[in-house]
Amino acid sequence: MGISAVFRMSMVLALFHLSLAIILAISKTFDTEAGSVLNDGCWSFHFIAIAVLFIASFWITTDIIIVYAYISRFVSMIFLIFQGICILSLAYKFNEFLVEFYNESGSTTSLILLISFTAGIYLFDFVLLWLLYKWFGGCFFNVFLLVLFIAVAIIFTTLTALRTRENASILTNGIVLSYILYLTWAALASDPDEKC
Fold first, then answer.
1. Contact yes or no for 188/142 (Cβ under 8 A)
2. Where are the transmembrane segments (predicted)?
3. Burial level of 132, CB count in 10 A (0-12/13-18/19+)?
4. How far apart, in Å, do the first and last CA atoms of the chain sit?
5. Nearest residue to 143 via CA among 195, 188, 189, 191
6. What is the phi-psi region of residue 130: left when phi exceeds 0, alpha when psi lies from -120 to 50, beta otherwise?
């Protein structure tokens, strides 16, 4: 029941948010506030609806859950790309906010924040990379993934330092590298081989 329950909950959440997105799209088409009220408020309704749908999902046959699991593997790749784009956009906005604040006010606080966040993110990346080598360095493929991450990190950082883009920044690069490192950790941690 364990893995089946995970896929059932995943399906419930996917269907709930898909139906919420459809309601919001219809609401926006007809210029009504009903969709916004449902999305921004009604949290008790959200929790109750999800709980009821989750309980009801146990009456769904396992064959349907298997089909959903197969489909979700492919849809999850699209979600990872979307998630990466959102993180990249957030990183650019955060960097632009700190740089603009420094340019407008001349305050060194935003500059110190920018340098501190950048140093902190790179320190986090190095420490996590070291821990991943320590925890998962027992197999060739795991080491290959970590070396591949190092190669990507060097390439991205070099391109950023060469200013190949006008608004490229080391902070944004560090945040993207953290996301890639998180995905690497997720891949390594999900390996069923206990030796690795």
1. yes
2. 43-62, 74-92, 112-133, 140-162, 168-188
3. buried
4. 26
5. 188
6. alpha
Question: Phi-psi bin for 106: left (phi > 0), alpha (psi -120 to 50), beta?
Answer: left
Q: How far is CA 189 from CA 19, 64, 181, 184, 195, in A?
A: 32, 28, 12, 9, 12
pTM: 0.77
4 pLDDT tier (thresholds 50, 70, 90): confident
* Two structure tokens written together for 179: 């996301």
30, two tokens: 């007809």
Domain ranges of the chain: 1-60, 77-196
Statement: residue 64 has pLDDT above 70 = yes
* Distance set, CA 50 to CA 4, 23, 44, 61 (Å): 17, 16, 10, 19
Distances (CA, A) of 31 to 22, 27, 79: 14, 6, 28
Mean pLDDT of 2-24: 90
